[in-house]
Specification:
268 residues, alpha/beta, Rossmann fold, Helicase, Ruva Protein, domain 3, seven-stranded mixed sheet, two-stranded antiparallel ribbon, 11 helices, 9 strands, 36% helix, elongated
């Protein structure tokens, strides 16, 4: 597998440098790479996607074990590099890809050392992906990973926690220090594995509902939800909240993800 020296040498040979505009911090720690590849290889997927392959820290080891991914890449130089290697490349911003048009077969898996600036958007968007996408193995800034798996009543718990935990089972794969990347970011990172849950009756209106609930964390949930719940249903909202074991003074951070889902469905 690639070492720090090999990566820098390859960049020099290709006349490339990491681009801040694309959030490029190339993974170089072989132990972290091995754990990611093992997590991917353990799943019986049919189709494999990778966002932001870079110079192949994850891509190459996957190919070595017969797991060639389809790539999503925005950097023109890397698009050309991988196409010359005969890999299929979707040359689009990952946030703008029409996932329903990818023709994914069930079950599929997404892997990525995600650019930090798109990581939360990718998770929220994937909550609404076609069900064919069953697994994900993704790298995050450690703080974001903690928010994803945060428990109610904690300061990290919020919209991201509720959405991710309702739509996926999550587990930690590995931690990565700043020196495990080139160039080194200023923060630690964490890799999480996701497995899709069967979710019924939720969609974009639910995202709006939860977002409103956490809009002002110090306000009571009922006040936050006034803008997204019909006035005629607001008394019913309080009744359901009490049925779920919460008072009229409950704040969003007190509700579990399942509480949010039940509350939303009863308001429909």
């Amino acid at each position: 597998m690639r070492s720090t020296f090999d990566l820098k040498q390859k960049l020099e040979q290709m006349g490339l440098a990491p681009k801040k505009a694309f959030g490029q911090n190339f993974l170089i720690n072989t132990q972290v790479i091995e754990k990611i590849v093992a997590a991917v290889a353990s799943k019986p997927y049919v189709d494999l996607l990778e966002i932001g392959p870079g110079l192949g820290a994850i891509t190459e080891p996957l190919m070595d074990v017969g797991r060639t991914p389809r790539l999503i890449e925005l950097d023109p130089e890397l698009i050309e590099y991988w196409r010359k290697r005969s890999l299929q490349v979707i040359d689009q911003d990952a946030l703008k890809v029409d996932w329903s048009a990818l023709g994914l077969r069930e079950p599929s898996l997404l892997v990525s050392n995600l650019p930090y600036q798109i990581s939360t958007h990718i998770v929220i968007d994937r909550c609404f992906s076609p069900r064919e996408l069953k697994w994900m193995v993704l790298m995050f800034q450690k703080e974001v990973a903690q928010r994803l798996m945060a428990a109610p009543h904690s300061k990290e718990y919020g919209l991201l926690s509720v959405m991710a935990q309702l739509h996926f089972k999550m587990s930690k794969v590995a931690d990565a220090a700043p020196q495990d990347f080139f160039p080194a970011p200023k923060v630690a990172s964490r890799v999480l594995a996701f497995e899709r849950r069967e979710v019924v009756g939720l969609g974009m209106p639910f995202l709006k509902f939860v977002k409103a609930g956490f809009a002002f964390r110090r306000k009571f949930l009922l006040k936050n939800l006034k803008g997204v719940v019909d006035k005629a249903k607001q008394e019913h909202l309080l009744a359901v909240l009490r049925e779920l074991g919460h008072s009229e003074k409950a704040r969003a951070e007190e509700l579990t993800p399942d509480d949010f889902a039940a509350l939303f469905k009863r308001m429909q």
